[in-house]
Design brief:
The chain has about 300 residues and is of the alpha+beta class. It is about 25% helix and about 30% strand. The chain has two domains: about 140 residues, Electron Transport, Fmn-binding Protein, Chain A (Pnp Oxidase, Chain A), CATH 2.30.110; about 90 residues, Alpha-Beta Barrel (Split barrel-like), CATH 3.20.180. The chain is elongated.
Length: about 300
C-alpha cells in the first residue's frame, strides 16, 4: 500500500459518483462499500489472495487525504485559458496557500496567467506531493473552479498567503500585484497507484487535514528503526497476517496505521485502526503502546 498518499465530482459532463458515507465508527466508506469502489486499479483480477485485514477498518476519506496533501504543498501548476494562442490551456508554476480550502495566489498583472484569468475566470490548480522515487506513486490533487481577484478587505487571503510565504511580504503591496482566489467547485484526487476518485466539493470544503500529517514521516521512521518487532506483533494479533517474517509501517493517520507485511507470497498490505481517533503525537504514542500491550496479551 502506498505510503501516506493522501477530489469532487466534476460539475459538468460527468456522472455523479457514489457519495461518501460514514461507517458506524464515523469514518470513511465510499458509496456504502469499501474505498475500492473509487480505486479502479485497486480491484485485482484473477485469483487474488483475500485481504489480510478488515476492509471496513476506519480510513481517511479521499477528501481528507486530498486536504492533507494540499495542506503540505506550497507550489503548484495553475492552468488558465490562454488568450493567445486562444483557447489553449496555459500552465504556470505558482506559489499557493489555502483559505478554507480555496487556493490563494499573489500574482502580477504582467503575468500571462493573470491576464488569462481577467479574460476567462475558469482555471485549475494541480498540487503534487514528493517523496517517492517513483513519480506516479506520489499523490496529486487537481482543483477546478473559477478565479477572481480578491477585492476590498484582503485580510484572510493575505494572512493565509503570507503565513505560508512570508518572503512575499516584500512585494505584496506593489501596485501591479494582487491576491487572487480560486473558488473550488470540482476536485480530482489521485493518491498514487490504485487510489483515485472525484470527491464532492462539499466534502472537500468540510474535510480537515490530518492532524498527524507533519509528524507522520518521523513516527513511521521511528517505529521501523526502533520497534520493528512491534510491527510483527501488531500484524499477528490484529490481522490475518499470522505467518510473517517481518513488517514495516508505511503510513499513519488519526484513524490508524498501515503496514507492509512480508509473507511467503511477498509483501502484503495491512491496515489497523487505533482504539480511538488520535490528534497529537502523544496520543498516537499512547495508542501504539496500548495496542502493543494488548497484542502481547493476545499472543501469549
Amino acid at each position: 500500500m502506498p505510503p501516506r498518499r493522501i477530489v469532487g465530482r466534476l460539475s459538468i459532463g460527468r456522472k455523479r459518483l457514489a457519495g461518501i458515507c460514514r461507517c458506524a465508527a464515523g469514518h470513511a466508506k465510499l458509496g456504502g462499500v469499501t474505498s475500492d469502489a473509487n480505486d479502479a486499479h485497486a480491484r485485482p483480477s484473477g485469483d487474488a489472495p483475500p485481504p489480510l485485514y478488515d476492509l471496513d477498518v476506519p480510513t481517511p476519506t479521499h477528501a481528507e487525504r486530498a486536504r492533507t496533501l494540499a495542506g503540505q504543498v506550497t507550489v503548484g501548476t495553475l492552468s488558465t485559458i490562454a488568450a493567445e494562442p486562444e483557447g489553449y490551456p496555459y500552465g504556470s508554476f505558482v506559489t499557493v496557500a489555502f483559505d478554507a480550502g480555496n487556493p490563494v495566489f499573489l500574482v502580477s498583472t504582467l503575468a500571462e496567467h493573470t491576464r488569462n484569468m481577467m479574460r476567462d475566470a475558469r482555471a485549475s490548480l494541480v498540487v503534487v506531493e514528493t517523496g517517492s522515487p517513483d513519480p506516479l506513486a506520489n499523490g496529486r490533487v487537481t482543483l477546478i473552479g473559477t478565479s477572481a481577484k480578491v477585492e476590498g478587505d484582503e485580510g484572510r487571503s493575505r494572512a493565509a498567503f503570507l503565513q505560508t510565504h512570508p518572503n512575499a511580504a516584500y512585494y505584496a503591496d506593489f501596485r501591479d500585484f494582487a491576491f487572487w482566489k480560486l473558488s473550488v467547485e470540482s476536485i480530482r484526487y489521485i493518491g498514487g497507484y490504485g487510489r483515485m476518485s472525484w470527491v464532492e466539493s462539499a466534502d472537500w470544503h468540510a474535510a480537515e487535514a490530518d492532524p498527524l500529517a507533519t509528524a507522520a514521516d518521523a513516527i513511521v521512521t521511528h517505529m521501523n528503526e526502533d520497534h520493528a518487532d512491534a510491527m510483527v506483533l501488531y500484524c499477528q494479533a490484529f490481522s490475518r497476517a499470522k505467518d510473517i517474517s517481518a513488517a514495516q509501517m508505511t503510513a499513519i493517520d488519526r484513524y490508524g496505521f498501515e503496514m507492509s507485511a512480508v509473507t511467503d507470497e511477498g509483501p502484503r498490505p495491512v491496515r489497523l485502526a487505533f482504539p480511538a481517533e488520535v490528534r497529537t503525537n502523544d496520543e498516537a504514542r499512547a495508542a501504539l503502546i496500548q495496542m502493543l500491550k494488548e497484542a502481547r496479551t493476545r499472543l501469549v
